[in-house]
Predict the 3D structure of the following.
Amino acid sequence: MVTRIGMRVPFACEDDDGLVDVSAVVKKRAIRCALSRICGSCGEPLSRPIAFFGPESEADDAQFAFPPMHLGCAREAATDRGLAEGGHHLGHAFSSGPWGLVTTGGFDLIRPNRRGDPIWFSPNSVIESTSI
Amino acid sequence: MAFADVREYTHLTDDEVESIGAELDAIRVEIEASRGQADRDYVLRIITLQRRLATAGRITLFASMFPPAWLLGTALLGSAKIIENMEIGHNAMHGQWDWMNDPEIHSSNWEWDTTQPAEQWKHSHNYIHHQFTNVLGHDNDVGYGILRMSRDQKWHPVNLGQPIYNALLALLFEWGVALHDLDIEAIRKGQKDPKLLKKQLKQIGDKVGKQTFKDYVMFPLLTGPQFLHTLTANATANLARNLWTYMIIFCGHFPDGAVHFTEEELEDETRAEWYLRQMLGSANFEGGKFLHLMSGQLGYQIEHHLFPDLPSNRYAQISHKVKDICKRYDIPYTTGPLHKQYGQTLRTIMKLSLPNRRTTDNPAPSSERAPRRLRDDERPVRRSELGKWSPASA
């Protein structure tokens, strides 16, 4: 599926009924991505290295809100970021400022301590970290 | 029953549930911090052992016209297949070794020696089974869609045949697993996306073709005049693997004490609640190092469900701490010898082939605990005064 300006809707931003909100991560989909080892952007099986892409604050904390992606999908998302609808991008309400692209061998799924809180992803064997 | 009504944890306060979560988090942190070369050496050693067993088995089968050679070759090959499926493939696809950054031993690359495509296993097992563990209507591992495994599941006359279905499932386990992610119930109800079904069937067809060619054409042909002997040896090795994996997997969630749950707010449970559901829904079995190796460390099913992506060679170490937590918080830690766990599973399968009114529930220890877990605001206020040292008593 694509948005009205031709961007691909990330798999993790669409719920099972087809509702799309690119400013939020659908928790159910995010858990599925983590456990089934599929890409949060295209929904296809992941390949090594695994990539995470998010605001620089997330990269600095090594905790990402958006699920793991293919490196190619992460690079494509980085290219699209300037065109994001209303600043919404990969589950974030604002896409301004530098973002970090981190590649890793593995990652941890961090479940929330309180009901309603989001889940996080933490790369656990970082290969490379770059700012975009 | 709903998770909030599970008797085994209704005595816990919200704070205690959170404390259990924090203690389990600490175990995870400790293992991750100490994960390193020794763990890497372990998995490399097991892969080497598995490949040597497989090679020795294949070579021995060149002499498979002699019954002892046929038997030895079959045993070596069967062992190699069991280790590949249980200790290596299953655990690699959980991402237990992803941290090593090894391009071969990685959850995205490992394709195992069985008919189910790895991609479908990672969905049906890693996601459906591990996320919705023992939740009726969600976890397809509860009876694999053909067995009634809980008294909360509605009885149907077709369940009378359970002993036969169970035997067939055990014998043909590899093929049952191959079809597992198709979600037969969704197909029956016409809810399955035809495009996805077609894609999955093609994947299964390709994998079945490769496996069949390897075990029943290529390797038998390589042994020339021993074609038929090698073919029967390969079939027997696969059969032995089927029976063993079926038994180990069924002992993980169906012995007495492992709890089944009804629909819950599954996506919104906290980490601590998720931990508890995994602990209460799983069952271990006891045994030596060899048994645990051959079962992919699934004798530590509770630990595996708590930490599915931590290296399997650490589960034994983790189990002491988990057992201690269960003891301190009065939570059941279901375990027993393998024969006892499987005996209970088999008894449940037989019993549930009949309607509930014809059988009694498995005996449960009596309890004076609350019928459901109290919220903290429903509990008596904790006493905070300090006895005679409190100002009020002065």
